[in-house]
Amino acid sequence: MDERIRFITHEGKQILLVDFTNCPAREVEQVARHVPNYVTVQPRGSVLVLADFTGAPIDREAIRAMKEKRGFR
């Protein structure tokens, strides 16, 4: 998962990049379930998240996984 979720710096700001590019639907769900592990250890309200869904099919399970995890609200 670490290759799909990582912090980047842009104009001096830390941004959590979640790269769903060309992920199969099942992997989208798995990656989404790991995002809170990165977000919840940071101070509340301090994380900017950028997600790239280019070429990634989204199914109901992936959407459900993102909705139930606090990293994607």
Describe this structure in words.
This protein has one domain. Helix content is 33%, strand content 25%. The radius of gyration is 12 Å and the shape is globular. It contains 2 helices and 3 strands; from the N terminus they run ββαβα. The mean pLDDT is 86. Strands 1-2-3 form a 3-stranded mixed sheet. The chain is α+β, with helices and mostly antiparallel strands. β1 and β2 (13-19) form a beta hairpin.
Descriptive keywords:
73 residues; alpha+beta; three-stranded mixed β-sheet; 33% helix; globular
Explain briefly what this protein structure is:
It is built from two helices and three strands, in the order E-E-H-E-H. The protein has helices at residues 25-39, 60-68; strands spanning 5-10, 13-19, 48-52. It is globular.
Q: Give the count of structural domains.
A: 1
Which stretches are poorly predicted, pLDDT < 50 over at least 5 residues? none
- Within the largest sheet, what's the order of strands? 1-2-3
Q: How large, in whole angstroms, is the Cα Rg?
A: 12 Å
Q: Choose one word for the global shape.
A: globular
- What portion of the residues fall into strands of 2 or more residues? 15-25%
Helix content: 25-40%
Helix/sheet category: alpha+beta
Terminal CA distance: 20 Å
Number of helices: 2
Largest sheet: 3 strands, mixed
- Count of DSSP E strands? 3
**Mean pLDDT across every amino acid position:** 86
Order of SSEs: EEHEH
